[in-house]
């Protein structure tokens, strides 16, 4: 059961750049240079962040401290294909260090969404002589926005899914090779968690363990998720509490809450959902809204991130605006992976039992992802002889569980990385 927490009054809702002139300035200044600057403003909250990548040969614990963080673009095999990467590396690598942890964001997001989680996991890396990396998926965030195409015919479901998945997981494998990593622990959120599982299935010898934060695409039931909430979900107003092992009673309560929300879904949201599933991207609204795009993002930021300070909200708004205005690419994967009703065309629950590694599921106690999928997956793993499946519910948290209750999730991440 979730631990009790003292209720505190939420800060008043903030409107970030919402005037017409502020929208004009936001639109006009958007571009790669501004995108890099908006990301760096989030990363500079790390006391050990450097603007320029240091030479690994010159790092010194006495001079640089236990950990150094820096950004870089890792070139892949194909021309103009690159992965935007935040590296947080120990200055005293240990020969027996655990595999590095890789933070992987969800649909249409970017590595900056994890800015409240970087410090604890980086400190873990410094303590264990390991490393932590945060990536932007190819075609998202500040990674290369290359054309996303699927050649399989519409009725070739397996072919469409395989092509869409390969776009992401094969680029992750290329990145791993370029970085010289033998094994990795993958920490993925939502669609990033889905891709983490798919990567582990295709490259099983390269994954040490999986930590899945509100994973997408797990259950079979077409009536359990509301995909529009990936964009419209509002943050819980209480940001305290902890992550506790999931009990059947709490999972059933969350399931009933989701079913009630599904019944109350508005007609507008259902239309939004339909368009998404038909290959339309919600981010097209911002790109096609001329100068009003920044204002739309501002309204989303002020509603979604109620637990952040005014400065943090402003920086997140700027960051989201810049990665949203970038050329559409990887976001168009969604209709190939999710069928009408928003369930996965090839659900993970039917594939996950092939994994032989530890798998940890984490859901918010007000999540809109179906925890029954995680519960069934843990049981499937157990029946296949893998007793290393676990599931947790984080209190006072929704789908963006790592942002909604960062302390609980950070404590759990460090615990699972040390497990």
TrEMBL record:
Annotated Basic and acidic residues bias: 230-262
Residue ranges of domain AB hydrolase-1 in the record: 102-406
Residue ranges that the Swiss-Prot or TrEMBL entry lists as coiled coil: none
UniProt cross-references to Gene3D superfamilies, sorted A to Z: alpha/beta hydrolase
Top-level taxon in the UniProt lineage: Eukaryota
Region of interest (Disordered), ranges: 222-262
Family: Belongs to the peptidase S33 family. ABHD4/ABHD5 subfamily.
Protein name per its UniProtKB record: AB hydrolase-1 domain-containing protein
Taxonomic source organism: Hohenbuehelia grisea
Taxonomic lineage from the root: Eukaryota, Fungi, Dikarya, Basidiomycota, Agaricomycotina
């Amino acid at each position: 059961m979730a631990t009790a927490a003292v209720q505190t009054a939420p800060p008043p809702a903030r409107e970030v750049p919402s005037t017409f002139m502020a929208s004009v300035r936001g639109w006009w200044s958007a571009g790669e240079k501004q995108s890099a600057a908006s990301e760096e403003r989030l990363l500079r909250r790390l006391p050990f962040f450097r603007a320029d990548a240091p030479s690994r040969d010159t790092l010194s614990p006495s001079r640089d401290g236990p950990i150094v963080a820096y950004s870089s673009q890792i070139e892949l095999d194909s021309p103009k294909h690159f992965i935007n990467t935040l590296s947080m590396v120990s200055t005293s690598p240990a020969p027996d260090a655990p595999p590095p942890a890789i933070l992987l964001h969800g649909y249409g997001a970017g590595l900056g969404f994890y800015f409240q989680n970087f410090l604890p996991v980086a400190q873990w890396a410094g303590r264990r002589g390991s490393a932590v990396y945060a990536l932007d998926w190819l075609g998202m965030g500040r990674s290369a926005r290359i054309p996303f195409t699927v050649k399989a015919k519409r009725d070739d479901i397996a072919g469409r899914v395989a092509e869409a998945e390969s776009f992401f997981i094969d680029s992750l494998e290329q990145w791993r090779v370029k970085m010289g990593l033998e094994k990795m622990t993958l920490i993925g959120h939502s669609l990033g968690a889905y891709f983490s599982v798919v990567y582990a299935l295709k490259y099983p010898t390269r994954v040490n363990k999986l930590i899945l934060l509100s994973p997408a695409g797990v259950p079979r039931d077409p009536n359990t998720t509301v995909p529009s909430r990936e964009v419209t979900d509002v943050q819980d107003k209480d940001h305290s509490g902890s992550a506790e092992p999931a009990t059947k009673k709490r999972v059933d309560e969350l399931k009933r809450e989701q079913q009630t929300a599904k019944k109350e879904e508005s007609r507008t949201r259902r239309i939004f959902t339909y368009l998404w599933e038909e290959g339309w991207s919600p981010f097209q609204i911002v790109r096609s809204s001329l100068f009003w795009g920044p204002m739309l993002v501002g309204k989303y930021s002020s509603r979604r991130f109620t637990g952040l300070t005014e400065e943090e909200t402003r920086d997140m708004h700027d960051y989201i605006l810049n990665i949203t205005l970038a050329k559409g690419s990887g976001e168009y994967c969604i209709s190939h992976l999710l069928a009408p009703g928003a369930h996965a065309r090839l659900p993970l629950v039917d594939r996950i039992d092939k994994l032989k590694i530890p798998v940890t599921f984490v859901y918010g106690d007000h999540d809109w992802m179906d925890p029954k999928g995680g519960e069934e997956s843990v049981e499937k793993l157990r029946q296949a002889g893998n007793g290393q499946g676990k599931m947790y519910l984080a209190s006072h948290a929704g789908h963006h569980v790592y942002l909604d209750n960062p302390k609980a999730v950070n404590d759990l991440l460090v615990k699972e990385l040390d497990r």
